[in-house]
Amino acid sequence: MGFPDRIERTVELAHPPGKVWAALTTAEGLASWFGQQATIDLRPGGPASMKWDHGHTADMRVERVEEPRVFGFTWHIYGLPDDDPRRTYVEFTLEPAGAGTRLTVVESGFSQLPEDAHNQAFEGNTRGWASELGELADYLDAA
Amino acid sequence: MPPDVEAIAEQVFAALADPSRRAILAALASGGPATATDLAGRLPITRQAIAKHLALLGETGLVTAEPGERRRVRYRLRSAPMQVAQQFLAALARDWDGPLGALKDHLDREPGGPATTLLPETRAQQG
């Protein structure tokens, strides 16, 4: 409900799709507007990365390559531990618009369930017990 | 039924909205597992209030109780619900407007602009 799963933006660019495609899918292109350094192996399953001068890095995996219309990758959810398997999917869609390009970016997967959701539900029961026993022990200790 | 992310995030933010609970969670995060008595010694909160808050935090899965020394129960911070709340914050903190603005500027700045950049490519294909 209040949890946004999907973020979507559309921008009109005064440049043809081929040029926008190069800016999105080449190391040189990515490094000139997104990261400060970039690498990319442009094929589904290929690794890509970006680095920023302040020290942040992003590791991506290329998922969809349909030149010059669709480019998709997944990356780690910012703020979660490095070993967390959850990733969001980012997809760029390029549509010709006059002499330029209508570029849409959709990032989705923010509200996916963690892998251990079932464990959490199970732990809920045992936790309830532990906390009740804890209250009993505290009560006895305080008496 | 597995708990949904919305409900988990809501519990985390409700817990964090209270300054005493924030202080308790912060103490457990910085100092590791502690008993209600330890926490009462460290925080300007009565032991009774701490016990009440710990019970609530335990119900919502933000802390877990474990046996400590001399029959005392120690409370440990659970990071899993916090990581769900972080997903929510990640969505709010994701800035696409900045990078897309930078993309636009980058394309406009490139030498030649859209009209003339076609020329070298055409030449390369012919050559």
Word description of this protein:
The complex is a heterodimer of chains A (143) and B (127). Chain A has a seven-stranded antiparallel beta sheet with strand order 1-7-6-5-4-3-2. The longest helix of chain A has 26 residues, at 117-142. With 143 residues, chain A is an alpha+beta fold. Chain A is elongated, with a radius of gyration of 22 Å. Helix content of chain A is 29%, strand content 38%. Chain A has helices at 17-25, 27-33, 117-142; strands at residues 6-13, 37-40, 47-51, 57-66, 70-76, 87-97, 100-108. In chain A, 21% of the residues are buried. Residues 117-129 of chain A have low confidence and may be disordered. By secondary structure, chain B is mainly alpha-helical. Chain B has eight helices and three strands; from the N terminus they run ααβααββαααα. In chain B, a hairpin with a 5-residue loop joins strand 2 (63-67) and strand 3 (73-77). Chain B is elongated. Chain B starts with a helix and ends with a helix. The relative contact order of chain B is 0.12. Classes of the chains: A alpha+beta (143), B mainly alpha (127). Chains A and B meet through strand 1, helix 1, strand 7 and helix 3 of A and helix 1, helix 4, strand 2, helix 5 and helix 6 of B.
Topology of this structure?
The complex is a heterodimer of chains A (143) and B (127).
Chain A: E1 6-13, H1 17-25, H2 27-33, E2 37-40, E3 47-51, E4 57-66, E5 70-76, E6 87-97, E7 100-108, H3 117-142
Antiparallel strand pairs in A: 1-7, 2-3, 3-4, 4-5, 5-6, 6-7
Helix pairs in contact in A: 1-2
Chain B: H1 5-16, H2 19-31, E1 34-35, H3 36-42, H4 47-59, E2 63-67, E3 73-77, H5 80-93, H6 97-109, H7 113-116, H8 118-126
Antiparallel strand pairs in B: 1-3, 2-3
Helix pairs in contact in B: 1-5, 3-4
